[in-house]
Amino acid sequence: MGKLLVIDVGNTHTVLGVYDGPTLVQHWRIQTQEGRTEDEYGVLFRSLLSGPESAGLGGAAVACVVPGMNVTITALCRKHLGLEPLVVGPGIRTAMPILYDKPQEVGADRIVNAIAAYERTKDTTIVVDFGTPTVLDYITKRGEYAGGVIAPGLGVSSAALFARAAKLYEVELVAPKQVIGRNTVHAMQSGVVLGHVAMVDGLVERIQREQKVKARVIATGSWAAIVAAESSTIEEVDEFLTLAGLRLIYERNQE
Amino acid sequence: MSLLAIDVGNTHTVLGIYDDGRLARHWRIETDPARTEDEHAVLVRDLLRDAALTGAAMSCVVPALTPTFRALCRRYLALDLLVVAPGVRTGLAIRYETPHTLGSDRLVNAVAAWERTHAATIVVDFGTATKLEYVSADGAYLGGVICPGVRIASQALFAHAARLASIELQRPPQVVGRTTAHALQSGMLFGHVATVDGLVRRIQREQGVAARVIATGGLCGLLAPESETIETVDEFLTLDGLRIIYERNRGTH
């Protein structure tokens, strides 16, 4: 079996990775731009994939939350890489029961994360993915996907604060030394960064209380490291959890 | 004595009339910096009708509207508007490093809250931004926290996430959403309340004090009941702070 190309298309960024067996040998992050054509993406992909670590690709798996991008990514895989991609969606075997009222409604990235997280813990788990939204997904001890929470992400909500509040301005997204900001920059850093940490910790605690469980908590996504450093509930960060999930699903569909 | 209190926020402007220290009437209008002094005057005079005003005080976080309201009060109401700004007497010791970038609504809330408790207090204001202020037991304003408000954060999410459609902010059946709509409502409502509760607890821990917690702002009615830390809700806290500050400055401005 050749190497596997995995593609995680998010609302803001698309992450690519190459797996050689279970090992992630290379990864890249590019903008998600719906206006770009399959040929433009083809040029970009072929250039990124030109190194020796990407030689011998035998398959591709895609999770995409931007409907318009599905066609583009599929077409570029066929035309420019000669690969028939597996696109995560209804009908794809995941080996995870979906306890959602409308299973086809669940974003592909959420299922992919859930599968990767449960593969590690084999236990009750909450996955926190810090992307355009911050998404928490809850997986039962038996490995069922049971739904979750979708909140405004750290990046979009802070940009909204800077744009909408006339007297405020953009600040660097780092945790301040103390919670009470004694100047306006520190007050905003506290609200944006520590406020987001508080949101995630509070939601994790509310889920645990509601479901009467003590869940393992794994985080991924762009802001995972910043938030996890201050969080009291996140146990583990895996920047490439979604990519790992794509590899697992690909393998389950080869059997 | 009849006082007009004006709280100009980024989204809404709230007006209130105090008769002898009691809020008699109040209104909420859109904040529109492009609206002229004369347009504002038509609106404000119609709402006020025949109120016999003796004074006016304002907190304004939209700089362009400060001269508009000042001119309106002078020309149409024959009142000299007290604008809360550095130099105005508040009764609190201000321990903020950058008083010139301190939103006046934050200070006004702190004044009103401390007047009620005379103890260490955290004020939570759910507005365009959600703001927390801390006043120590000896009446010093120490600063606070500014978070994206629940509405602007949600609107930003819907604008940036292709598959997520705008949805009404209301309480979902449980925290773990089993539909995308419920998952979003959970994130908006429980997520925002968790932000506030977590920040309140962190402040209490940092200051080593079980501070009192008072909430205000347009969305406090919906959010405060879900909170584990908010003790009291007062929708008109900012207006009341303006009244208090006006009384402390009477005859001096």
Question: Tags for this entry?
Answer:
heterodimer; A: 255 residues; alpha/beta; Nucleotidyltransferase, domain 5; 2 domains; five-stranded mixed beta sheet; 7 helices; 10 strands; 38% helix; 25% strand; globular; B: 253 residues; six-stranded mixed beta sheet
Please give a structural write-up.
The complex is a heterodimer of chains A (255) and B (253). Chain A has 255 residues and is an alpha/beta fold. Chain A is 38% helix and 25% strand. Chain A is globular. The model of chain A has no long low-confidence stretch (mean pLDDT 94). Chain B has two domains: 82 residues, 2-Layer Sandwich (Nucleotidyltransferase, domain 5), CATH 3.30.420.40; 146 residues, ATPase, nucleotide binding domain (Nucleotidyltransferase, domain 5, 2-Layer Sandwich), CATH 3.30.420. Chain B is globular and about 60 Å long. Chain B has seven helices and eleven strands. Chain B has 253 residues and is of the alpha/beta class. Chains A and B meet through strand 7, strand 8, helix 4 and helix 5 of A and strand 8, strand 9, helix 4 and helix 5 of B.
